[in-house]
Write a structure and sequence with these properties.
Elements: H1 3-13, H2 16-28, H3 33-37, H4 44-56, E1 60-65, E2 68-73, H5 75-111
Helix pairs in contact: 1-4
Length: 112
């Protein structure tokens, strides 16, 4: 992934409404802006905008059905997002372990 794709992906999953939409789509398989708005505390128009963000990030794909578009999660892109999040989490865990070691060394030096 390049930096602009990463930025779009992180921005897309950074919003709690969009994360909830992904949860609903994963649980139901597919959904429309109308069906999702019935289960979220936002308007249909807001859902449509959120779906646009998720679509641009590649996390969902739309298929036209009559007057609506049916959305489903792109499993591959979601797996890439999860892998990125896990990688960042592991990097922060390592940083925090280093900070803890430094803090403990400072405390020992102050006691001695």
């Amino acid at each position: 992934m390049n930096a602009s794709v990463d930025d779009e992906l992180w921005s897309a999953v950074g919003d709690p409404v969009r994360r909830r939409m992904l949860d609903l789509l994963l649980a139901g398989g597919t959904g429309t802006a109308t069906t999702l708005s019935e289960r979220l505390p936002v308007t249909r128009q807001a859902v449509a905008k959120h779906l646009g963000v998720l679509d641009r990030a590649g996390l969902v794909h739309a298929t036209p059905r009559g007057r609506e578009r049916r959305y489903e999660v792109d499993q591959l892109q979601l797996a890439r997002a999860v892998a990125q999040l896990s990688s960042v989490g592991a990097a922060w865990d390592a940083r925090l372990r280093r900070v803890k070691r430094v803090a403990e060394a400072v405390q020992r030096a102050q006691r001695d």
